[in-house]
Write a structure and sequence with these properties.
Helix content: 10-25%
Order of helices and strands: EEEEEEEEEEEHEEEHHEH
CATH topology: Lipoxygenase-1
Strand content: 25-35%
CATH architecture: Sandwich
CATH class: Mainly Beta
Number of domains: 1
Distance between the termini: 49 Å
Largest sheet: 6 strands, antiparallel
Shape: globular
Radius of gyration: 18 Å
Number of strands: 15
Number of helices: 4
Structural class: alpha+beta
């Protein structure tokens, strides 16, 4: 099965990127999901490899279905690892479910730089590429690791528990359905980047979110035009700019009052700057309240 996602092409536009033969062969009846993580690499960087992150999965209604706790094995820069997560947290246990919300959290102080996360349970599949994190303000590196059917080299994004070298994320979370490269959806992201980068349940990076945490999710489920196209109602998608999510939370992110956070006074109007300050600087301010 091929994993479909989107990256940024040479002109700077969102473009479909396919990675063929990405997964172990699973069937929905197996009550498992395959998660493949591909790391970046480059001559100017020797630290992209490192420990595997923790992974958590939820269905589209926000029920946790499975979780992965890593061993001490590392992933080398430019290499990949495939992880099969059993549905041990469904009710009843090991019942069939679809992975729609995904979170990766790095508990180790040794950084990793992720080019792609590919997710499939044999029924649905999708891929997160590092270009999304880059576009939304996450710390990144210009990886030279070429992947996919077109041998593209998406940027990789850093995860680090202690934020060495100003790395601004320990964790990422994303809605798998919204990582799929439907043409109308990509056009919406291009025309209104906030629908990708300022829609926290859709994608977010987090300064401190721990493996047992629960990131924000869409409740009720989103509705799309023409199946999986553009959003029907942007008001259900976009974050409230006056009450942003606390992206420095450790367990249960909550919305906070922007007026109480002094760092927001110096925000640039670009989406990437909002994402950065909502993450790390908002965390620092909250600790002082």
């Amino acid at each position: 099965m091929a994993a479909l996602g989107f990256a940024i092409d040479a002109p700077g536009l969102f473009a479909s990127l396919s990675l063929s033969g990405a997964f172990e062969k699973l069937t929905p009846a197996e009550a498992k999901t395959s998660v493949k993580i591909i790391l970046g690499s480059g001559e100017r960087n020797t630290t992209a490899g490192g420990p595997r992150p923790h992974i958590a999965l939820w269905d589209d209604d926000g029920h946790r279905i499975g979780q992965y706790t890593p061993n001490k094995d590392n992933i080398k820069a430019g290499f990949q690892t495939n992880i099969v997560i059993e549905y041990t947290q469904t009710e009843p246990k090991h019942s069939q479910a679809d992975p729609y919300f995904v979170m990766l959290s790095q508990m180790n102080n040794d950084v990793i730089c992720i080019s792609s996360v590919l997710v499939s349970n044999g029924k649905i599949s999708g891929a997160f590429y590092g270009d999304t994190g880059y576009k939304c303000g996450q710390s990144w590196f210009a990886s030279e690791n070429r992947i996919g059917s077109d041998f593209e080299a998406p940027r990789c994004v850093w995860l680090d528990a202690n934020h060495d070298n100003d790395i601004n994320a320990r964790a990422i979370s994303f809605h798998l359905h919204d990582m799929q490269p439907n043409g109308d959806k990509l056009q919406q992201y291009y025309e209104n980047l906030d629908t990708l980068c300022n829609s926290t349940p859709r994608f977010s990076f987090w300064g401190n979110l721990l493996p047992d945490a629960i990131p924000p999710m869409f409740k009720p489920r989103l509705k799309y035009k023409n199946g999986n196209g553009a959003d029907e109602d942007l008001s259900k998608v976009l974050d409230d700019p006056e009450h942003p999510w606390d992206r420095g939370a450790y367990m249960a992110p909550k919305k906070v009052n922007k007026k109480r956070l002094p760092y927001f006074k110096s925000l640039d109007e670009s989406s990437s700057s909002k994402r950065y300050y909502n993450g790390i600087c908002a965390r620092s301010a909250l600790q002082d309240l």
